[in-house]
Amino acid sequence: MDVTPQQMMQQTLIALTEQYQALPALNIDLTRGKPCSEQLALSNSLDSMIAGNYSSQDGVDTRNYGGIDGLPEAKALGQWLLDAPIDNILVGGNSSLTLMSQAMLIAYQFGLGGEPWQNAKFICPAPGYDRHFALCELFGIKMIPVAMNDDGPDMDAVEALIGEDRSIKGIWCVPKYSNPTGAVYSDEVVERIAKLGQKAGAEFKVFWDNAYSVHDLAEPAALSSLWQQAEAHGTLDNIVMFASTSKITHAGSGLAFLATSERNLADIKRFLGFITIGPDKVNQIRHSRLLNSPEALTRHMQAHADILRPKFEKVVEVLDRMLSGKGVAKWSNANGGYFISVDTAPGLASRTVALAGQAGVKFTPAGATFPYGKDPQDSNIRIAPSMASVDDVEQAMSVFCLCLKMAALEQGLAKFN
Ligand SMILES: Cc1ncc(COP(=O)(O)O)c(C=O)c1O
Fold it and tell me: pTM (2 decimals)?
């Protein structure tokens, strides 16, 4: 007797469920892009960089108060990361996210190079970084999702929105090895972003979070300079750039950087002058001595890449081996950054993540890469392989593929009912 497609699917699901139930007890976490301890160890010589010499290159005693915008040698590091003039750089504490939240707070409460924001809206290319979206939610900023393409945000949609709604006050951008898709903005997209301010008004800010500017896994991708483009189009007041050493040195005790126009910088420094008598300059000299030239930075990042590359390759290898040609998902093959992004067929992401979670393999919750945690297609899953060992990545990704196949069969069978 012929086996019907429904029976075939049922039998396959039973076989996969048996495999799933026979899995060993697992506890693997691929949720967040944290450096692993081997990566952190690359910067342990930060400890020995002071050796009794607390003096900056200009003779400042870094142990004392002062220097609200940072030491010149620390600004130089920010300049290499952000591709912006040294005089426009500010060096913050250990988290660029803090600088982003402060820029948002200033824009809302006091004005950042313009009038204070009221009932602001933000354009949010999605899938994107969940903590950007969380900041918008914190501030009550309405998020408007636009599609994230392989060359950056859908700029036709972005320009149309800006043309029709003056309450749009910003856009989130992760221009190089975007979180989570790994996309690098094309030259055309960078130029179109630089021009947005011409239409959007002085209060509009491009939040340019260049978190992965030097985090290449292969040949570095070229990103055109937003600063130069904004200068050419007269929109420097519309851009605020961010970076940090979180994934360069020690994630919890690094330096963060911001670059923006003199006008915006004055508003930011004024605010900082109220909340601190100066940043941690000892950490600034520690970092600028460890990463004392663009070449030293490049060598350091190559050592990171050597640790990370096998993990990224393993993710893609398992996906290719287990899912290629099955029509249930497609995935990015990022050349840098911290993430691989999987787009399942619609409606499968939550179930896949839930099944994997029950088997002891944790992924970022489905939906987290979209504003308000709502992926309209229930499709995108972010994979962060940096913390796990290569063997654990292999194990976790095999479980992931098994769970995705089960979810697809369950969905297919549901259609017969
Ligand atoms: C795009 C992006 N921006 C910022 C951060 C966090 O940066 P920081 O540690 O400097 O706050 C992350 C961390 O994953 C990130 O992916």
Answer: 0.97
